[in-house]
Design brief:
single chain; about 625 residues; alpha+beta
Length: about 625
């Protein structure tokens, strides 16, 4: 429901109505109409050459910059409220490029069009997105989401078939072979997770249907068979060790068990979130999630995660140490995962580009030396090393890795490596290379109006902390929107805004955002807010916070405000059983304190080299 709402608000805000006045001509950069092209090129001002660079800049800023540089009025969007054009972000690296070629490329890359107002003297230009293109983008998104849902269902059914025929009676040789060929399945065997989940399927009525339909329902541990109880107990002990002792173990059979669902499995987001679910255990007001997650063994990232966890366990390494030992295999898994995703979900096809000699020229791509390399870094380095300009759409939160050789490489191979690692397409028009995400119809929904972000930013700086109303509004965004707009922002990223999608505070803030004025008044009163009066979606947020309650259980939620040790507001949410008067939980959400970002260190004018070998002092870079 939340995803549907998120897509709805994006569509609702679209500016899709425009009546063209006399004297205006539409220019489509993809048009083959020679008459239209002739009109477009008849403005000699567009022939001037420009040199321009933009890294994740909004279209409105780019066009304002180009207008100032050239004296040609270039407007973005139908009007100032048309954020769907004005606030879209781009990367541009252009040197001595004709203005007409650059602005044509901008429109083509972003699937926009130009209109010429010939009643203005001199002519003025406006960039916009037409209804047909917008409808096509929404149709592509709907189609991709449908295919995504089918693929998730298929993978879940495949996993259930594996679990229903699960057999732990393997020889040492068979286990050793699994360790090498299928680390994920090996870990399910050696952790006991596979047998425990099979026990749940056998013992819990409807568990199979719940898993397929992604429904999280708690079930009393006491009603499981003794064998399944012991299997689950063994896994919890193995996973949590000393953290699971005392009251937790002694009251194990008084708890409940269910699925800890991963709502965004196999979506276009973070590579690390590749699981269906875990097994969630509620014991004595504590919630344990079994780490040996349930996922798709055919996915390369699932196998990489399993192998990394095995390495940590077998050699006693930290997460960072295990990562360092497996970094090369991580990059390989990223690329294989991108290829697999492309097979399973509809994406824009790679355009047919003529095999021209210029594409076979060898270049040496040397990205700026920094801890993390991103798509924009490779694009900038490619433009610098070649005779081509680069124009691209831009998203800050984009995972991937470009496996480009450090020696001279054909430009064609460089472009293929970049697009293969980051799920992009490329095209060539004259001396401009254009990049666009294969999933642009999906990724565009991760961007929100700059006006919203700037309002929250202004409030944050003015107050010195984030207000509960702003925090709740941000919580209603999708995971992709939070990552794209806040976890990559200099002012917001230090705050750690909802860094864990399953954290309690995000569900509490989503609940708070849905409350009416009267419900908020009850929430902060001595009487409290009766959970039974909440709507379906509202109750689900409470259940996500406290897995012990059921939809028919009468509970009261109260909230009190105070000031924490940092001098910022803190809100304590208390949930109480009205029948037993037992406190089911208390959660404190502290408002995030603003910390000004640290100034960036000045860049070194030139690399230091080893006089003996001539090699760079910093010879490696690392990619997330």
């Amino acid at each position: 429901m939340r995803k549907v709402f998120a897509y709805a608000f994006v569509i609702f805000l679209l500016v899709g109505r425009c009546v063209w006045a006399a004297g205006k001509t539409t220019v489509d950069p993809n048009s083959s109409d020679q008459a239209v092209i002739a009109q477009w090129e008849s403005d000699t001002r567009l022939a001037q050459k420009v040199t321009y660079e933009a890294r994740h800049k909004a279209v409105k800023v780019i066009l304002a910059d180009l207008s100032d540089m050239t004296g040609v009025t270039l407007n973005a969007g139908f009007n100032k409220q048309d954020w769907q054009v004005r606030d879209r972000k781009m990367n541009i690296f252009a040197k001595d490029v004709h203005l007409v070629d650059l602005i044509s490329s901008i429109a083509r890359t972003m699937k926009f069009k130009w209109s010429i107002n010939k009643t203005d003297v001199p002519w003025t230009y406006r960039l916009y997105m037409d209804r047909k293109t917008l409808a096509s983008a929404n149709a592509e998104l709907s189609k991709a989401q449908g295919e995504y849902d089918k693929e998730v269902q298929r993978r879940r059914e495949d996993f259930l078939n594996t679990m229903e025929s699960w057999d732990d009676d393997l020889t040492d040789d068979e286990l050793e072979a699994l360790r090498e060929d299928d680390p994920y399945t090996y870990r399910l065997h050696t952790s006991g997770m596979g047998a425990a989940f099979r026990g749940l399927l056998n013992d819990v009525p409807g568990m199979k249907e719940n898993f397929l339909n992604k429904q999280d329902k708690a079930y009393p541990i006491a009603e499981l068979s003794p064998e399944t109880q012991q299997l689950i107990l063994n896994v919890v002990k193995s996973e949590y060790g000393e953290d699971f002792s005392g009251d937790s173990e002694s009251k194990f059979t008084l708890g409940g068990v269910g699925l800890d669902l991963e709502p965004d499995e196999f979506d276009w987001k973070a590579y690390e979130d590749k699981k269906f679910a875990g097994i969630g255990i509620n014991i004595y007001k504590k919630f344990f999630v079994l780490d040996a997650f349930l996922g798709d063994r055919s996915n390369p990232m699932v196998q990489w995660i399993a192998e990394k966890n095995l390495l940590k366990q077998e050699k006693g390494l930290s997460s960072r140490q295990a990562w360092e030992q497996m970094r090369d295999r991580y990059f390989d898994a990223c690329i294989e995962d991108a290829k697999q995703t492309e097979k399973n979900y509809p994406t824009e096809p790679q355009p047919d580009v003529p095999d021209e000699p210029d594409l076979h020229k060898k270049i040496k791509v040397e990205p700026e030396e920094k801890k993390w390399l991103d798509l924009v870094d490779y694009q900038a380095a490619t433009a610098k090393a070649s005779d081509f300009a680069v124009v691209s759409d831009s998203y800050k939160f984009i995972e991937g890795y470009a496996g480009i050789s450090k020696s001279e490489t054909e430009l064609l191979d460089v472009l293929s490596a970049i697009c293969e690692g980051y799920r992009y397409n490329w095209d060539k028009h004259g001396l401009i290379i254009e990049f666009r995400s294969k999933d642009w119809f999906k990724r565009r929904t991760a961007q929100i109006p700059d006006e919203w972000v700037e309002k929250w930013r202004a409030n944050l700086k003015k107050n010195g902390y984030m207000s509960i109303d702003d925090y709740a509004q941000i919580a209603t965004l999708t995971t992709e929107q939070i990552r794209e707009n806040f976890q990559t922002d200099n002012d917001f990223h230090k705050l750690g805004i909802f860094t864990g999608p399953g954290s309690k505070e995000i569900w509490l803030m989503r609940l708070y955002a849905t409350l009416s004025a009267s419900q908020k008044k009850e929430l902060f009163s001595d009487i409290g807010l009766n959970v039974l009066t909440l709507g379906t979606d509202q109750w689900e947020y409470v259940h996500r916070t406290c897995r012990e309650i059921t939809s028919g259980k009468s509970t009261i939620l109260r909230c009190s405000a105070s000031t924490d040790e940092n001098g910022t507001p803190a809100y304590a949410f208390r949930l109480t059983d009205t029948e037993t008067r037992d406190r089911l939980g208390i959660w404190t959400v502290s408002m995030l304190k603003y910390e000004p970002p640290e100034p960036e260190e000045p860049k070194a004018e030139e690399k230091k080299t080893d006089s003996a070998s001539g090699s760079s002092a910093a010879d490696t870079t690392e990619k997330k």
